[in-house]
Amino acid sequence: MTRVLVVEDDPQLVRALKINLQARKFDVEEASDGGLALRLAATRKPDVILLDLGLPDMDGIEVIKGVRGWSRVPILVLSARHTSEEKIRALDAGADDYVTKPFSMDELLARLRAATRRQEEPAQNDEQAVVTTDDFTIDLVAKKVLRGSRPVRLTPTEWHLLEILIANPGHLITQRRLLLEVWGPTYSEHTNYLRVYMAQLRRKLEADPSHPRYLITEPGMGYRFEP
Ligand code: CA
């Protein structure tokens, strides 16, 4: 049974979540504030955490940082805040995904399943150097990309971007993180660089670059590699 820790101070929402999650055979633990959430995360070892950012005793971001000090458990943020800045802070602190309130229960459950599925996959390690999709194969050690049998040439910058994205399959990587890691701190606002380089990567890798299947844009937020 998958154990979910629901961290939320709105009792009506907790009740709705509990009914829906238990109906789908999730084992539900509840915490109505951040302090209890941190204690239960440590003692009850949940398989996934649903986390509201607006908690009575602390900012949900602090809960993410606290849990990330010792655990890789998937954290799915429930955000009532509509600014992408808050979501980016949550993702940078180590959240895996976010859902904006109000959300549909179906969407939440789909994201929950995706988050727990990723957790069950064997840890990515250096031996897993070859990533294969229906359209292309990437050998990270040999630094080679094939589309069918045809080699694709990537520039060092394109490689760097692609490596970060495919090392985190299914995860949204923020614009800020990509800019920091690939271009450095002075370029953290240059989101136009990302647009240009992602367009190049799509032209080289995607069957239909204007409707990408693998290199997905989350508008205003970042990019994700969908394997
Ligand atoms: Ca709240």
Keywords for this entry:
single chain, 227 residues, alpha/beta, Rossmann fold, Arc Repressor Mutant, subunit A, 2 domains, four-stranded antiparallel beta sheet, 21% strand, binds calcium ion
Write the SSE topology.
Layout lengths: L2 E5 L3 H13 L3 E5 L2 H10 L4 E5 L7 H9 L6 E5 L4 H10 L3 E4 L4 H16 L9 E3 L4 E3 L4 E4 L2 E3 L3 H11 L5 E3 H8 L8 H15 L9 E4 L3 E4 L2
Helix pairs in contact: 2-3, 6-8
Q: Give me the CATH architecture of the largest domain, please.
A: 3-Layer(aba) Sandwich
| CATH topology description of the largest domain | Rossmann fold
For CATH, the homologous superfamily of the largest domain is named as Response regulator
Coarse shape: elongated
- Give the strand content: 15-25%
| N-to-C series of helices and strands | EHEHEHEHEHEEEEHEHHEE
Strand numbers in spatial order across the main sheet: 2-1-3-4-5
Structural class label: alpha/beta
**What is the CA–CA distance across the termini?**
26 Å
User: Which hetero ligands occur in this complex?
Assistant: calcium ion
CATH level 1 name of the largest domain: Alpha Beta
Number of helices: 8
Q: Helix proportion of residues, in percent?
A: 40-55%
Mean pLDDT: 89
What profile does the largest beta sheet have?
Answer: 5 strands, parallel
Detail the poorly predicted runs: none
User: What does the radius of gyration come to?
Assistant: 19 Å
Give the number of DSSP strands.
12
Total separate domains:
2
